[in-house]
Design a protein that fits this description.
It contains 9 helices and 9 strands. The chain is α/β, with parallel strands linked by helices. It has a single domain, classed as Vaccinia Virus protein VP39 (Rossmann fold), CATH 3.40.50.150. The strands form 2 sheets. It has a 7-stranded mixed sheet with strand order 3-2-1-4-5-9-8, with helices on both faces. Bound molecules: S-adenosylmethionine (SAM). S-adenosylmethionine (SAM) binds next to helix 4.
């Protein structure tokens, strides 16, 4: 279960559609397009999806990545989210594919048998599970439904040191930006082996600002290429001391 504050927050965000799960303040949509494409480019390269794969999108929100993954013609993809409004929205928008299903999650027990999924992905979800015992319990539950040697792929906002974030204009802590060391240690202590992690510093790249200010539509064909350049130029930059850095992690169940 999540508390009432989070319930209301995500419930309201669901009504904003795609913007509600990325940056709700981005009304023009250029920044969110940049973030969305960046996530997809990284996940496509790293997940190496194959037609026999059963995939879980944990904390799927309005289904942007779940639907995109279903297009790879994999065996099955399940989008799971703790906010019923998110699941309703995802179902309304993307109910058409046979290999795709959205289900509500009760916040503690994933309704699938042990060793069911080949791959799990999760983007910007674990950082909202602030309480340490819940965080560990969730990792173990993900491990239970993942096949032995299966992999989990996730993207979270990382800081040099763990940093609690209050929701704007409230005292409510809705996010914990963990350090990469913290993610690695906690996963290792709960049955996983690190395969790789790297910071996604693309927002410090040279094209980011051009793209989020607004790109003439006749040039939008070039955006994936520009993001790719930003990603490769900034991949080796250190995580900033005072700003968060999106980071990609893969762990294997052992
Ligand atoms: C920032 S959105 C990201 C949605 C989606 N992963 C994406 O990248 O488009 C965070 C999502 O996590 C969900 N969430 C929050 N706490 C959760 C939990 N304990 N278990 C599963 N989902 C959770 C919220 O309902 C929300 O849909």
């Amino acid at each position: 279960m999540i508390d009432n504050f989070q319930k209301n927050l995500w419930g309201k965000r669901a009504s904003l559609g795609g913007r509600g799960v990325l940056d709700p303040a981005d009304k023009k949509g250029f920044k969110n397009r940049y973030i969305d494409l960046t996530h997809k480019m990284i996940l496509e390269k790293e997940m190496k999806l194959s037609t026999s794969d059963k995939v879980l999108d944990f904390g799927c929100g309005t289904g942007r990545l779940t639907f995109w993954i279903a297009n790879f013609k994999i065996s099955e993809v399940i989008g799971l989210d703790v906010t019923p409004e998110m699941i309703d929205r995802a179902q309304e928008k993307y109910s058409s594919k046979k290999n795709l299903k959205f289900l509500s999650y009760n916040g503690s027990k994933i309704q699938f048998p042990d060793n069911y999924f080949d791959k799990i992905l999760s983007v910007w979800v674990l950082q909202h599970i602030v309480e340490e015992s819940k965080f560990r319990e969730t990792i173990r539950e993900l491990g239970r439904v993942l096949k032995e040697n299966g992999q989990i792929f996730f993207i979270e906002q990382v800081m040099q040191r763990n940093s609690l974030e209050k929701y704007p204009q409230t005292d409510y802590i809705y996010k914990l930006r963990r350090s990469s060391e913290n993610y690695i240690k906690t996963f290792q202590e709960n049955g996983f082996r690190l395969v790789k992690w790297y910071p996604i510093n693309a927002r410090r790249g040279i094209f980011y600002k051009f793209i989020v200010i607004g790109f003439p539509s006749f040039l939008s064909f070039f955006i994936p290429l520009l993001i790719r350049i930003d990603l490769s130029l900034t991949r080796w930059m250190k995580v900033s001391k005072d700003k968060y850095t999106d980071s990609f992690f893969t762990f294997k169940e052992v």
